[in-house]
Amino acid sequence: MAAKTKDKQTTKLTAKHLLNIGFPAGKPLGTALNIMHTYYNELGKNHQLELCQEVMAAPEQYQLHQILGPLAQALINQKETAPIPLQEQAPDFAVYGREGIESGAISQMEMAMRLPVSRAGALMPDAHQGYGLPIGGVLAVENAVIPYGVGVDIGCRMRMSIFDIHHGYLDKHREKLKKILTDHTRFGYATFKRPLGHEVMERPAFSEIPIVRELKDRAYSQLGTSGGGNHFVEFGIVEIQDPDNEFRLPPGKYLALLSHSGSRGLGANIAGYYTKVAMGTCRLPQEAKYLAWLGLETEAGQEYWQAMNLAGDYAAACHHQIHQRLAETLAETPMAVIENHHNFAWKEKDAKGRERIVHRKGATPAGKGVLGIIPGSMATPGFIVRGKGQAAALNSASHGAGRVMSRTKAKETLSKPQVQKYIQKAGVEVIGSDLDEAPMVYKDIHQVMAAQQDLVEVVGTFHPRIVRMNGDAKYLEVD
Fold first, then answer.
1. 375-392: buried (b, 16+ CB within 10 Å) or exposed (e) per residue?
2. Sign of the C-alpha dihedral, residues 425, 428, 432, 436?
3. N or C: which end of the chain has fewer CB within 10 A?
4. Residue 7 belongs to what H/E stretch?
5. Alpha helices, DSSP H only, in 185-298?
6. Predicted confidence (pLDDT) per residue in 163-184, tens digit
7. What is the mean pLDDT of the chain?
């Protein structure tokens, strides 16, 4: 255990390095950093990590060690700490469209409701099983935030631009619109050679929070791009049905642009890092470990809150740039723009005026008069909606149709000819998708909407026509 030899890697050991090897947060983490920086500062980072791993693997062997003893004792004490007990029974919560929701999602929501910090919850009709909080789950807690209750794709959102262009333009100019999509959007690992600048990159959090600071260059390179999975940018026809709509648009059909994406690598890394921190400081029973929370009175909780809000604003910036590029190419200014997000936590007041942290993981805010977009699939309609402010649903609605088939099962059971025939029949062209996003992997959007009539009213209907997604290798090249 001598501190004499020098490792070639001289990068200073940080909390992130230790968390990445599974080192517990809290007192053991602080003790390890203090000892390494004080007594083993001549060792390189990799050597320090190996030493910490040795003590973590067998702390009992180091209890009497002159230098490492306090670290060993901190590890033993944390290991012996009993998990935080859950409530014996889950309080009641509203479930919308229960007949279409798998039992696993309901069980996950029940588990979340048993947390000692939980105060209210609801399950939306597009719900399906996820990690920690189910997709479509809404959970209100007191003075805490659950990183996995927010989700990995922080601030994922929908944005729609409606143009003063007759809907017939789309069929007459399909090839032009397809080229606009392929030339001016990027998905997955593909980025623009010259990203557009944005003020979000100058936010203080990018310099004040260590984990965020490390992600700044990558975030800048991904500005204005979309992720993989179910993310898309598409042209379609929107039909405004409500004559009293907020946009003052005459009822009728218009060309519209719709996008769905989130905070890219920035949000994913923030979620991963703070989930580890939460799990290290908030020890829960194994079956509830992904619901570990950070108290908002703690430094880590405040740090995550700032990082989460930054990721949400970054996701919005990406959408703004997607729409900016495409609108400029069309030489049009949108008549109306609608935007809403999910995978986020909001500070809201309950019926008695008490502040709650409301997590919406795959759920759309639907407070009274709040506008939102609920998409179906690439071959089924989506809807512009106005929230009704239903308290039992925590002012929420579904964020889409919701999956009925896993990505793995989709690839095992569906064929490309089968999917192509389905989308062609719907009058849709798709660029760069795969079988795991086929229309048949989703619930019937009409049934989902019927299950939430008490939550939202329909303002307009959107029909996809040209859909761009990630999945085709030839569209992943960087320009």
1. bbbbbbbbbbbbbbebee
2. negative
3. C
4. none
5. 205-208, 210-214, 216-221, 264-281
6. 999 999 999 999 999 999 999 9
7. 92
